[in-house]
Amino acid sequence: MSGIFLSLRQLSVTYGRGSSGAAALDDIDLDIVAGEMLAIIGESGSGKSTLARALTGLLPEGATVRGEILWPGLGHPPRAGRDFGFVFQDPGSSLNPVLTIGEQIAEGARRHLGLSWKQAYVRAEELLERVRIPQPDKAMRAFPHQLSGGQRQRVAIAAAIAARPALLIADEATSALDVVVQAEIVRLLDGLVREDGMTLLFITHDIALASGFVDRIAVFRNARLVEAGPVRSVLSAPRSDYTAALIASHRDLATPPLIVEVRS
Ligand SMILES: Nc1ncnc2c1ncn2[C@@H]1O[C@H](COP(=O)(O)OP(=O)(O)OP(=O)(O)O)[C@@H](O)[C@H]1O
């Protein structure tokens, strides 16, 4: 890990014009280190997706943004598809139902890496192998509906990293999957991010899941950043009552054996 990749300075976002409406993000100061895995934790409505949209220029028209989003790690504002990849909760929303798996992964590599279609197809098949889709050569010709939910999410991850982005944003990317598949996808993300030296923003309501693999946690509540820190320090000594309650609500995190392990 080295250097600041991304800095948020007094970032506030309000939906709707003028000063009407409550802030969806309120005065957020946060530095994200290059190459780190940071979990953005919070319950529904806390502002997690607003943060992801603000970073990637995907806020709806009429949203008001105040403060600064700085990208020292890139040196320029991020270009969609090139500098960041996005994985959503529902892979259906990022995969095109009428394109083959091969076509949609190859497209990002072709467009952003300047590859020919032939080279892009080679890269797409390699990526399917990396995300551990069985029989990648056959899967290249399949359509999204022919795959399981977990496999579709693997394909969505492959498409998101096809252009070798510096930043990967996973927004509730495992929430629709059963726990076994969730664990597999988390392991996959962990491996890919380390191998490629990407920075990961793992957005989730599940502090237990995130704590198993990320470096740091940022806890959001009601549009505010409640606290941020390394997983071990947040779990063993949360600074806010809210985080403490969140930890206590997860038996796996609150039971003595894990606390002992966390402190070791
Ligand atoms: N397009 C929009 N227009 C108006 N208000 C919105 C819009 N999108 C989100 N909000 C509001 O902004 C606040 C934060 O929402 P956001 O989606 O960022 O939260 P979240 O933590 O990602 O929740 P979830 O996990 O349910 O997606 C909520 O009060 C929500 O109702």
TrEMBL record:
Primary location recorded for the protein, binned into one broad class: membrane
PROSITE patterns, A to Z: ABC_TRANSPORTER_1 (PS00211), ABC_TRANSPORTER_2 (PS50893)
Mode of membrane association: Peripheral membrane protein
Domain ABC transporter: 8-247
Catalysed reactions, semicolon-separated: Ni(2+)(out) + ATP + H2O = Ni(2+)(in) + ADP + phosphate + H(+)
Keyword field contains Lipoprotein: no
Gene Ontology MF, one: ATP binding
Keyword tags: ATP-binding, Cell membrane, Ion transport, Membrane, Nucleotide-binding, Plasmid, Translocase, Transport
Family listed: Belongs to the ABC transporter superfamily.
PANTHER family per record: NICKEL ABC TRANSPORTER, ATP-BINDING PROTEIN, OLIGOPEPTIDE TRANSPORT ATP-BINDING PROTEIN APPD
Subunit structure: The complex is composed of two ATP-binding proteins (NikD and NikE), two transmembrane proteins (NikB and NikC) and a solute-binding protein (NikA).
Protein name: Nickel import system ATP-binding protein NikD
